[in-house]
Every structure is written in C-alpha cells, then in structure tokens.
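Q: I'm writing up a methods section and want to include an example of the input and output format. Could you take the sequence below and give the corresponding predicted structure tokens, formatted cleanly so I can copy it straight into the document?
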Amino acid sequence: MSKIPNQPNQPEDGPGFAPARSFFGYCTPNWISAWPSGWVAVLLLCTGLAKPAAQPVDGNAIPARLAKRSLLLDVHGRGERVLAVGERGHILLSTDGGKNWRQVAAPTRRTLTGVFLIDDQTGWAVGHQSVILKSGDGGETWAKANAENDPETAYLDILFLDAKTGFIVGSYGKFLSTSDGGKTWTEAKQDDDPHFSHIITAPDGGLWLTGEFGTVRRSGDRARRWEPLATPYEGTFFGTLPLAKGGAVVFGLRGNIFRSEDGKAWKQVESPTQSLLHGGLALADGRFVLSAAAGQLLLSADEGRTFRPVEWPGAATATSLWQASDGAVLLTSDKGVHRLELTDFKTEGAK
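A: Here is the clean output for your methods example:
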C-alpha cells in the first residue's frame, strides 16, 4: 500500500505527452459485440486510453449550450440536490429533484465517470486520466483533489460510507481508499489487475466490488479484507444489486445477469436482452431496474429472479440511475439526463 497525498488545485496541470498502456483490455471484443446500440457510451469510457497518444494539458470545462443533452455517465444526489457528470468535464446540478438542470463550472475537460454527494455540501467526482474533483458547496463550485497524475488510469466509480471513509475504483486494478475525508488516499495493490467498474454498499452494511474477468468480491469489514466470489461467467460485470440477506444480482456484458442468495451458488437469470447492461438501481418499493444499450430498461419485481423489458418515453441509452426523494427515477444517458415517474415504468405488453 502507498499513501498518496492530495495535490494542490492546479487549473493548468495535467500530462503533456505520455505513452499509455493499451486500454483494449477494457474495451475487449466482448464489448464490441454489444455496441450496435449504445456504443457511444462505451466508446467514451475508453476514449484517450486505447492507444499511445498525445494527452493535452487539462483545462476548465467549456460552458456548452447543449451540455444538458450531452453524454452523461453517472448521477447521484441527496434530497432535492442532484449531480450528473459526463464527457468533456460536464457537471450538471439540479436543486429540485431533477426537474431542472444547469451546467456548473468544472476545472477539467476530462471525461467524468463517477459522482457521489455525501451530504448537501460535500460532493466528489472522478474520471479519466486519474482526475478527482471535490465540491464543498453542494456542487456549485469544484476544485481538483487529484491523488496522482496518471494519464493511463481511468477512475470509474466512487463511494463514500460517511464523511471520512471513501473508495475510488478503476482501470488496471486501481483501488484507492481514504479514512480522512479525502485528505490522503491509500492505494491497495492487487495481485492481478482487473478493471474494477463498480463498488456499492449492501443492506447489511457490506461492500460489493465488480469488474472484468467475472470479478465479484465481497467485504464485511469496510474493505479491510475482500472475499473473492467465483461466478460461472468470465466476462465483465458492470454492477451489483445486493440482496437483503447477503446475496446479490450482478450484471454486465451481453445482457448477462446472475443471481445468488449467499454469494456462493450462482444461477444465471434469463435475460430479455443481449445488450450491454450499464447500471442498476434498487427502487424504494423493492423493485430492481437495469439499464441496457439499445435504449432498454429491464424491471424485476421479484428481487432479480426475473426481468421484463420496460417501455419508457425516450430513445436514449441509459448509463446510470438514481431515485429522487419524491420517487422519480433519474437516468443519465448518451442524450443527457431524463426524469421518469414510476407510472412511466410499464412492462412491454402491459395495458
């Protein structure tokens, strides 16, 4: 493990010319088979890391009239305050539960892939080329809080358990943790280096971590130790929906969905799609929603045992989901952010 102190905010910092490792390990041929619909979101996740290239010096995000319709990759909020992040350093803020959005200034033009709002004041965002941003005023303003300057690293997800304890995961086995509110980050070195795509808390307080090569890991002690779980799938998992009694539903490439009651015995769930499954959400009423390429949503009313396609009024590919305090579901997509009422969730064929 290595301690990485935060670097001071430097608006013009960033790599000049740097060779990058091939990122095709993340954009494998398995990804490509899921591209025909929804390939834009996948491609942007890999942009700039697929081959050695000149990396421009970073700068401030450019205010864009159509930012609200651009590719957005993650959404998270607290109460009425919600943040959405995506390409070109775009950060959108809503203070009314996702009904209205406005772009806020950001000190990066790098693609942002993860965002987390700890409370109504403290927010974090992460993205390509190891960028980390922090806000102390609910997302109104942002500053860089980089733990490292690595043009080869893409941070893909961020999670905080409380104001002090947080985690960042990403490409090539990157796993950073903080116990002091992000003042310093500790990097846990991996025996191998699968790309980690998602980290989430379970109802029992445990943690679940998913990634490529069928990686599924579980921790019951706040990430001090991880239990690797063997699954019957060797492709990439992009997320987990933990169950109340210790199991989980995991999902990923080619519409693959697996479910386990205990994290040990896994059963493949019949999937109504072969498209890449980007993200998932456990609704307050107990139902599960998965977002897929081809503009699809999948809905389960039986804790992930079965899923049915959902019709929704949009032709976009949803990349991430979050439920607002009034019950509406917010979706980031390749065409901006959308707000759906629960009445919009109608399974195909339902009257």
